[in-house]
Amino acid sequence: MKKNNEDLLELKKLSKDEYFKEKFRKLCLNEELNDTEKEFILTCSLMFFKYYNLDKRLKGYFKIGYFIILKYTLNFNNYKPLYEICLQIGFYPIIDFITKLEKKIYKVDSKNLILDAIAFISYKRDFESPEKYIESLEQNISRNSIIKSQFNKVAYIAPTSYGKSSLIKEFIKIKDFLRIAVIVPSKSLLVQTYKDIKALNLDYKLILHDEMYNNEEKFIGILTQERATRLLNKNLLINYEVMFIDEAHKLFDRDSRSYILTRLIQLNHKRNYSQKIVYLSPLIDNVDNLKVKSTNNGEIFTKKIQHDFKSFELYLYKSKKSYFYDRFTDSYFDLINKTNYFEYIIENSGYKNFVFHSRPKIVERLAKKISKKTNNDLSNNKEIKKIIDTLNKEVHKSFYVVNYIRKGVIYIHAKIPNIIKEYLEEKFKNINDIKYIVANSVILEGINLPIDTIFITTNGTGNKNERLKVKDLINLIGRANRLNEVFSKDKPTLKGLLTKIHFLDNKKYQGKNSIETALKSLREHTFKDVIKNPLIENYDINNLEFSGTKEKVKERKEKQMIEDDKLIKYSEFILEEPINFNFEIKKYLIENSINVFYKDLDYAIDKIIGQILKFNFNDDLKIVDIVKDIFVLENEDNIKDYELERLKNIKARNYYNHFLEVTQKLHLNERINETLKYFIGKSKTEDPLLYIGSSYGETSRTSKIYDNDHYNRNVYINLNKPENILVNIAIVKLKLEEDFVSFKLNSLIVFLYEFNLITEEYYFKYVYGTTDLKVIKFVRFGLSVNTINKLKKDKQLDNLKLDINGNLFVEDKDRVNFEFYLKKQPELFQFEIKKYLQY
């Protein structure tokens, strides 16, 4: 860290050298340089590389040297310096690109062509899937080292689009493992990863859900940490021989999903001391921080990509003025003045633009403003008209995106249903005229998108401790100009190697945190891991920041220490074999993170067992009423999860019983209309307030949980609003309810089933909306209940089959008829089927 600070300080001194500063400013701002100035700036670049070669810790010198060469190449269309430096440092994809286009941009010396030929033969990777690419020297060395490594723990730390998914596929292809788990952080990534692995055509059962496992000897589980853990808990005699942990930096977080991931590693280790783990991430400084307690940690064999082909330019908009920010010398160069906020976005837009904000409500507001400022009118564009028609019919004509997409603007965030989000992402990816996607961090969990310019409009959610960290920014920036896009045959330019990142300062949108703090954090060349998870070996509470007065900091720290101790004991506890019913209940609640719903878990367990012992099941009981009677006692004050606490209210229970019995089976448009009808009816009652959560909440309501915790938040919304606004609230509410049912309510319903408190038929009816085992099989695969019900109604379900390896397919004899049927169906229906079905 000392050396990192040293090069930052030394580079900052360059701002005092007026001659260098002026020539560098001209280069950054694309101004003309004479021959003497060109020679000077290129010489400076070589000197920076020389300093870096003397001490590889001084990464800042490498970054500025490479930036100068890249910027010079693009400004003056002179590829010779870039070609020669890339040959020395092993950036073979750039060499390959230049060589293929030599007649247009650069005539390569014949002696270099021989070297190139050798390099291309050595570093070209050609997988059996449609994937072909050139590796850099670092990539090649890293991949070969990891594949050949005999270590049980391996880490590959590389920027986004540097072959992590390819490494997984090659590892699986050439290694002889029987039971493989690829752990992905979100359901959105399941299908993308499944398609990648399916394309390998390997003789493995592919599993996307824990209930798809049927004692197969060979399988690849593409699973979230929750599903991977449930699979082990239901099958006590198996383990994973190898686990790939994607986005491994999430282990450092302090939340229930991080604890489940950590405990998955602990549980699998207990069953298999020689388990192999491959950690994959772009955002880890010290791999020793990945070591999990209670797993006999040894050395983690690590390969880290030190140098990125891509660089970036930083811009700041503030008080109607704009600046180029030189992150190397910490200097600002003046640009144009007197431009308003949204005009600046339009004027500086690229081919495909990503506008980032952390709050969903403001994501929608920004999309609206940008759509009003653009001059685009795509109303007559056939592709856009088709999307508008689809959204009108299958979502709702008042859905905000319907109007915005006419101007080439869409938005996505975590509070809209997944099928809409994924559909809009796909359209942004494939339709050139959709120029803007406004989104929050949910964009990191979806498909790879062709973004070339980024606008960052916030530095977090307002709280000092929730501001954007340098890791967050690096992850966001990594979404732009992915290498497969940069080196596309359709784009004979290397401009994508230099991403433009714009930071916009405006208190109306950014909140209390300074946007310049986020901007300046990108001066850092290394970043420190912040470990908040007490189940990680290197966790140290003294390394964390606590906000508030000295007394408040002490109080919060002491409270967290108690919580840490509890979490560590829980993790040790669940590795033991149950010795009685109380033990078994507690183990299950902790394993499935149900314990987080309660203030005092042991007290809750006593009450739950008491309720179980006097419970008598019959089919006439409603499922949410059973959940309430077992887990949410009427007169108890032990629930700390507000969403769950609402089940004490008869109206809330009726709502969720109806949701499970009726709403979840409906088509999306029907669900929205039913929710809208409920809103309109509720708005006319004496209680027009609706729980909507903090993202959209406008007002508060008295609650024991908030009073006890001094935690008064605006989580309600008044439904006395115009119908078009209520429609969009309904869309958000549906996603909130889907998440509540999927992640919280269903975990309690599964408990009832696992402990034989309800019958299998009753369980299937509520969780899957049917008792038909064929339908359930496809729901577990990932298709929605209403899509399968439609296939069944249209007598098409028999055309879909799962082969012995868990792949969805249509037999050749049925394919023509099924494709003909599919073409006549609504587009969202087609989209969902085609997500999983590959011909």
TrEMBL record:
Gene3D superfamilies: P-loop containing nucleotide triphosphate hydrolases (3.40.50.300)
Pfam families given in the database record: DEAD (PF00270)
InterPro entries reported for this sequence: DEAD/DEAH_box_helicase_dom, Helicase_ATP-bd, Helicase_C-like, P-loop_NTPase, RNA-DNA_Helicase
Residue ranges of every copy of the Helicase C-terminal domain listed in the record: 362-523
This protein's record includes keyword Transport: no
Protein's recorded name: DEAD/DEAH box helicase
Domain of life of the native organism: Bacteria
Keywords, in A-Z order: ATP-binding, Helicase, Hydrolase, Nucleotide-binding
Limits of the Helicase ATP-binding domain: 145-301
Molecular function terms from GO: ATP binding; helicase activity; hydrolase activity; nucleic acid binding
Species for this entry: Flavobacterium profundi
Classification lineage: Bacteria, Pseudomonadati, Bacteroidota, Flavobacteriia, Flavobacteriales
